[in-house]
C-alpha cells in the first residue's frame, strides 16, 4: 500500500514556508500580470479576487504540509472561498493558465526553502500533488458552476415561454429573453404539441439539436402534457417548422403565425393553442399544421378570433367584390362543385363561372374546387352571415 503522506518537514522549514506564503502569492500574481495580457486588462477588484484565491491555496498547502493526516483540501477550500461569480469572468482555459504559472513559480521557489535534499524532494512531490488536486478541484468547480447556470437558464427559459403563453408585459418578457441570448427583433413562430418523452432533459436535447442543425434559435418549455417551442427566424418555405415538428411526440403539431418580434409571440401562441384544441376535428391534418389552416375547426370550437379571421379573410373580401362573385361561390358550393350545374343555376356561361371562381381564389387564397378549401369557404360564409345577423359586421 502506497503512503500518500509526505515525509515530515522540520519546524524551521515549516516556519519558513509560513512566512513565505504571502510573498509566493504576490509573486504569482506579478508573474501572471507579466505573462498574460488578458490578466493585465482585468479590473483591479477581479485581480484582487485571484490573489485571494492563490493566498488561500498557498495557506492550505502549507497547512497540509504541517499536518499530513488531514486531506488535501487546499484547492477545494480556495475555490469555495472565491467570489461566487469568478467563473463568469475567468474561463476554465484561463484558470488553467493561471494555475500553470503559479505552479511553475512554486517549483522554482519552494525547494530553496528546504533544509536538505530530503526536504527538497518532499516539497517537489507536494507541488506535483498540489497541481493534480487543483486541476480536479478547478474542473469540479467549473462543472458545478456550469450546471447551476444551466439550471438557472432552464428556469428562466420556462418563465419566458410561460410569459409568451400568458401574454405577459413586453418589457419583462424581452429582458428575460435577452438574458438568454435571444435577439428581440428576431421573427418568432410558436409550435405546440406532445413532448416526445417524460424526460425533460431528453426533450430539450432533441429540440435543441434539431434547431442547431437548422441554425435557428429556440425557446422551449414542457407544460404538463404539451411541449411549447418558440422558433426564431422566417418560416415562409415551411422547412424549419417541419424539421422542429420531428422533435415532438406522436399526435398533431400546430404552428401559430410567424410574428415580427418576440413581443408579438403571444398572438402566435394563442392561435397555436387554439388550433391544438381544435385539430381533432381534422383527422387528416398535416404535421405540422398551421393554425390558420384550422380556422373552420377553431370557429366551430368557439374561438372568436378564428371567427373574426374567417370574416376578415374570406367573407368580407367576397362581399366587397360584388354580389355576383359571392353568389357564384355560394351557388358552386351548393351544387357540390359541379361547374355546369352552377352555370345553369345562375343562368350564365360556364366560362363566366370559371372566371369568377378564379377571381375568388385570388381574393381569398382558397380554391373552391379543392375539397378542404371548399369547406373553409362554406364555414366562412356561414360565420359571416351569423356575425352580420348579430350586428357584429
TrEMBL record:
Belongs to the CdaR family. This is DNA-binding PucR family transcriptional regulator. One of its GO terms (molecular function) is DNA binding. Residues 325-382 form the PucR C-terminal helix-turn-helix domain. Keywords: DNA-binding. It comes from the Bacteria. InterPro entries: CdaR-like_regulators (IPR051448), CdaR_GGDEF (IPR041522), PucR_C-HTH_dom (IPR025736), PucR_C-HTH_sf (IPR042070).
Amino acid at each position: 500500500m502506497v503512503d500518500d503522506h509526505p515525509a515530515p518537514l522540520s519546524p524551521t522549514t515549516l516556519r519558513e514556508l509560513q512566512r513565505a506564503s504571502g510573498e509566493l502569492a504576490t509573486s504569482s500574481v506579478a508573474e501572471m500580470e507579466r505573462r498574460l495580457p488578458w490578466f493585465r486588462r482585468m479590473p483591479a477588484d477581479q485581480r484582487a479576487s485571484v490573489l485571494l484565491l492563490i493566498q488561500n491555496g498557498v495557506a492550505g498547502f502549507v497547512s497540509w504540509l504541517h499536518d499530513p493526516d488531514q486531506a488535501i483540501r487546499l484547492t477545494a477550500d480556495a475555490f469555495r472561498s472565491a467570489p461566487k461569480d469568478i467563473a463568469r469572468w475567468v474561463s476554465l482555459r484561463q484558470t488553467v493558465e493561471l494555475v500553470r504559472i503559479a505552479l511553475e513559480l512554486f517549483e522554482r521557489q519552494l525547494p530553496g526553502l528546504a533544509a536538505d535534499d530530503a526536504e527538497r524532494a518532499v516539497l517537489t512531490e507536494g507541488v506535483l500533488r498540489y497541481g493534480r488536486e487543483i486541476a480536479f478541484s478547478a474542473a469540479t468547480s467549473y462543472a458545478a458552476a456550469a450546471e447551476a447556470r444551466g439550471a438557472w437558464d432552464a428556469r428562466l427559459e420556462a418563465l419566458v415561454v410561460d410569459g409568451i403563453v400568458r401574454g405577459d408585459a413586453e418589457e419583462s418578457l424581452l429582458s428575460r429573453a435577452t438574458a438568454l441570448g435571444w435577439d428581440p427583433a428576431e421573427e418568432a413562430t410558436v409550435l405546440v404539441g406532445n413532448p416526445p418523452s417524460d424526460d425533460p432533459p431528453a426533450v430539450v436535447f432533441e429540440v435543441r439539436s434539431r434547431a442547431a442543425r437548422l441554425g435557428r434559435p429556440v425557446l422551449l418549455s414542457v407544460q404538463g402534457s404539451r411541449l411549447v417551442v418558440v422558433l426564431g427566424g422566417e418560416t415562409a418555405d415551411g422547412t424549419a417548422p417541419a424539421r422542429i415538428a420531428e422533435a415532438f411526440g406522436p399526435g398533431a403539431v400546430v404552428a401559430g403565425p410567424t410574428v415580427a418580434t418576440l413581443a408579438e409571440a403571444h398572438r402566435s401562441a394563442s392561435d397555436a393553442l387554439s388550433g391544438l384544441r381544435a385539430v381533432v376535428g381534422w383527422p387528416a391534418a398535416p404535421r405540422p399544421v398551421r393554425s390558420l389552416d384550422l380556422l373552420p375547426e377553431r370557429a366551430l370550437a368557439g374561438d372568436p378570433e378564428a371567427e373574426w379571421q374567417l370574416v376578415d379573410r374570406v367573407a368580407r373580401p367576397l362581399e366587397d367584390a360584388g354580389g355576383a362573385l359571392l353568389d357564384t361561390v355560394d351557388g358552386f358550393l351548393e351544387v357540390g362543385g359541379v361547374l355546369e350545374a352552377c352555370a345553369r343555376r345562375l343562368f350564365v356561361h360556364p366560362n363566366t363561372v370559371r372566371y369568377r371562381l378564379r377571381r375568388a381564389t385570388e381574393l381569398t387564397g382558397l380554391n373552391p374546387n379543392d375539397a378542404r378549401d371548399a369547406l373553409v369557404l362554406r364555414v366562412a360564409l356561414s360565420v359571416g352571415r351569423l356575425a352580420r345577423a348579430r350586428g357584429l359586421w
